Amino acid sequence: MGRKTIVTCAVTGNITSRAHHPKLPITPEEIATAAVEAHKQGAAIIHLHARDPVTGRGSMEVQLFKEITEQIRDSGCEAILNFSTGEGGRFVPDENDPRRASEGTTLTAPERRVAHVEALRPEVCTLDLNTMFSGTAVVINTPRNIEIMAQRIYAAGVIPELELFDSGDLHLAKHLQANGVLRAPGLFQLVLGVRFGAPANMSTLSYLVSQLPADAVWTAFGIGKAAFPMLASAWLLGGHVRVGFEDTVHIREGVLARDNAELVAKAIAIVENLGATIATASEARILLGLPPLR
Questions:
Q1: What is the pTM of this model?
Q2: Which of 145, 168, 201, 222 has the highest count of CB atoms within 10 angstroms of its CB?
Q3: DSSP tag of 196
Q4: For all residues of the chain together, what is the average pLDDT?
Q5: What structural domains does the chain harbor?
Q6: Alpha-carbon distances, residue 183 vs 147, 177, 190 (angstroms)
């Protein structure tokens, strides 16, 4: 048997749009259906964002996450649910007065960003450590806000998945672990290929992995055309893998994937051919130190 490998599927994200893929899941029902289908295909973890059903934009509304969660669980799906807390961190400066927020700003209090986690208590949620330029916005995650969010996430009995977009984020994570803000060794997600973040190549990924805390559990993924090369690289370096419409909408260059489940099927075929054994949701809970599904 090969090494047990957890496959995560990020079914919608908050940036991918219907302009990128006409079947991008947006409504709670569409997101839940995509999650169930991805799990049936072999994804043990489903990473969830909520979308405003009218505008299609990312949302922090607790009710939307509640509807998504209930529909997934009512279907009998036992996947580990991983809520995003990334929404609420973007600041778009006004062109004439950079101190003022312009259209597209979502920056809000850290307590607001984890309200859905506290209300619904998923098994895992993300905790972004990046402050970086993104599109026309600056993503802002100050150490103070990270500490507030971490305290509330832990108090809710949820494991934070630490999202790292560059080497500085990793150094910050280790600093916060040393100060007791974050628990060691930690669950990490390495993001490669975001513009002005860590480039999507084996050298960068190898460096990041070499700097992780001993015994940390980690996953890595690439954006766009780097999705499948970085997926294979992550497995070869000892990590778990992720795929989904948040990361890429293409099954191969120039060809749209039918759905998230097709991306999961290709991801599994790649790592199984390399020697992996795919972890079930129950096995993934053991690997992550989670109790059995409540």
A1: 0.97
A2: 222
A3: T
A4: 97
A5: 4-288 (3.20.20.70)
A6: 11, 6, 18
* CB environment 65-91: b (16+ within 10 A), e (fewer): bebbbebbbeeebbbbbbbbbbbbbbe
* Inter-residue contact 205 to 233 (CB < 8 Å): yes
Predicted local confidence at residue 2, as pLDDT: 87
Q: Give the pairing type, strands 58-59 and 50-51.
A: antiparallel
Q: Considering only CA atoms, which of 266, 219, 149 is closest in space to residue 8?
A: 219
- For the chain, the distance separating the N- and C-terminal CA atoms, rounded to the nearest angstrom, is 29
Q: What is the mean pLDDT of residues 180-193?
A: 98
pLDDT in tens, 193-218: 999 999 999 999 999 999 999 999 99
Amino acid at 29: E
Q: What is the pLDDT of residues 227-255, one digit of tens each?
A: 999 999 999 999 999 999 999 999 999 99
Q: What is the DSSP letter of 48?
A: E
Residue 135 confidence (pLDDT) above 90: no
C-alpha distances in Å from residue 215, one per residue of 73, 81, 187, 209, 227: 31, 23, 10, 11, 25
Tell me how many degrees the CA angle 128-89-167 measures, rounded to the nearest 5.
35
Contact 147, 181 (CB under 8 A): yes
- Angle among Cα 56, 59, 65 to the nearest 5 degrees reads 110
